């Protein structure tokens, strides 16, 4: 046979690359399982998650009151608490046992207890107290009950100080009520909502996890169809490592470029979540993130032996990855081992960088640590992907050689 020139080899490699890209693209839309993870889940899951938390905050949390003081001051306190948007007092109980029964039956999620000496302490100039008991199975219930009672107690404290000061002007009353004026400003989450806080991190993690599941499922399917259970089929177009890695990666990148725009840009816009980042910075940040996720998933797919394995290996990792990313749990409180361990996953840098750009208005320069880390991960995982696929190519060749030997031995016996 005529020896191929360098130009012919390059031309053949490019042709094989686009052949592999075309075959992988067809597999994505022909395999129902891959189609579910690549299209259906990214399309439906963000909408479902956003609809659940669309109210952002919990309002009118049912609570019960135990008023042992039974005075005008205690009734005024409870009336003010009930008037806040956070709490609705659904019952006035005679004692704590009755109030606990309401909580056991989940008719109420908090108890406001006013002691019998409440009004007497105020009249005598002593410090008094109001006790609150919360159902801690839902931290948002605790937040609403605590904030409402804190706001009412601060307002009543101001009025008591002004009443006792006997000031002659309104300005003196203002200084007496609040010697140091303060203003509560919620940065980057003006509604103090749960969706605006957590949903952006969930969306960026969704991209990585669906890629892991979809690519893992495709790898399991390829092994099941392969006679020797190898990842790389015995085909003349699959003879080079780079053409396989780049062909598959290009296919996944094209699909997820559209998916990422929908998940990370369209969904937050639909639900009017906070989006103050520059589109150009966001697009540039997503380029290495998608590349890192794709090559990470292709490297991890080497462990998948059948279609079901990816569900067992990858699904359970979503919640731990969310915690160790430093978003749902403070990054400063994450132990050093888990912090460094989280750097193995593109989602850690992707979540922190995306939230800072999209929700806090950071520029690409201000997230250079995450941006550079993602490019580094993309390069490292590209190399590991080439290594594992090269190993698979060699295994396929060995199996093919063994098969030829077996056939030759059979012919010689005949």
List keywords for this structure.
414 residues; 6% strand; four-stranded mixed sheet; mainly alpha; 15 helices
Short note summarizing the structure:
The protein is mainly alpha-helical and 414 residues long. Helix content is 65%, strand content 6%. A 4-stranded mixed sheet has the order 2-1-3-4, sandwiched between helices.
Describe the structure.
This protein is mainly α. Helices cover 65% and strands 6% of the residues. The protein has 15 helices and four strands. It has helices at 6-30, 32-52, 72-83, 96-104, 118-123, 139-165, 170-177, 194-225, 241-270, 279-300, 309-314, 318-324, 336-342, 346-358, 368-413, and strands at 61-67, 87-93, 110-114, 131-134. A four-stranded mixed sheet has the order 2-1-3-4, with helices on both faces. The longest helix has 46 residues, at 368-413. The protein starts with 5 loop residues before the first helix and ends with a helix. The model has no long low-confidence stretch (mean pLDDT 84).
């Amino acid at each position: 046979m005529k020896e191929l020139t360098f130009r012919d080899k390059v031309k053949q490699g490019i042709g094989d690359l686009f052949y592999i890209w075309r075959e992988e693209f067809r597999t994505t839309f022909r395999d129902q399982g891959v189609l579910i993870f690549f299209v259906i889940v990214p399309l439906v899951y963000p909408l479902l998650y956003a609809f659940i938390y669309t109210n952002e905050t919990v309002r009118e949390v049912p609570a019960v009151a135990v008023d042992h003081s039974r005075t005008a001051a205690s009734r005024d306190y409870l009336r003010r608490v009930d008037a806040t948007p956070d709490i609705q007092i659904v019952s006035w109980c005679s004692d704590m046992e009755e109030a606990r029964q309401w909580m056991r039956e989940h008719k109420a999620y908090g108890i406001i207890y006013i002691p019998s000496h409440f009004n007497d302490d105020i009249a005598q100039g002593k410090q008094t107290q109001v006790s609150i008991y919360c159902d801690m199975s839902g931290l948002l219930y605790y937040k609403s009950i605590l904030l409402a009672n804190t706001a009412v107690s601060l307002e009543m404290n101001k009025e008591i100080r002004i009443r006792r000061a006997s000031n002659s002007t309104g300005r003196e009353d203002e200084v007496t009520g609040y010697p140091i004026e303060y203003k509560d400003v919620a940065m980057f989450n003006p509604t103090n909502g749960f969706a605006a806080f957590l949903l952006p991190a969930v969306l960026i993690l969704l991209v990585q996890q669906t890629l892991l599941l979809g690519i893992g499922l495709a790898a399991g399917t390829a092994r099941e169809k392969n006679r020797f259970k190898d990842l790389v089929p015995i085909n003349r177009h699959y003879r080079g490592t780079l053409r396989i890695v780049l062909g598959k990666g290009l296919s996944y990148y094209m699909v997820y470029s559209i998916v990422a725009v929908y998940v990370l840009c369209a969904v937050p816009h639909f639900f009017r979540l906070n989006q103050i980042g520059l589109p150009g910075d966001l697009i540039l940040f997503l380029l290495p993130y998608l590349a890192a996720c794709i090559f990470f998933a292709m490297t991890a797919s080497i462990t998948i032996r059948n279609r079901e394995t990816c569900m067992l290996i990858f699904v359970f990792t979503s919640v731990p990855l969310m915690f160790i990313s430093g978003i749902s749990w403070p990054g400063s409180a994450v132990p050093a081992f888990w912090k460094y361990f989280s750097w193995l996953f593109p989602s850690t840098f992707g979540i922190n960088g995306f939230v800072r750009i999209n929700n806090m208005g950071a520029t690409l320069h201000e997230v250079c640590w995450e941006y550079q880390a993602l490019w580094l991960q993309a390069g490292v995982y590209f190399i590991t992907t080439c290594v594992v696929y090269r190993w698979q190519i060699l295994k396929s060749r060995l199996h093919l050689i063994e098969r030829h030997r077996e056939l030759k031995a059979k012919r010689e016996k005949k």
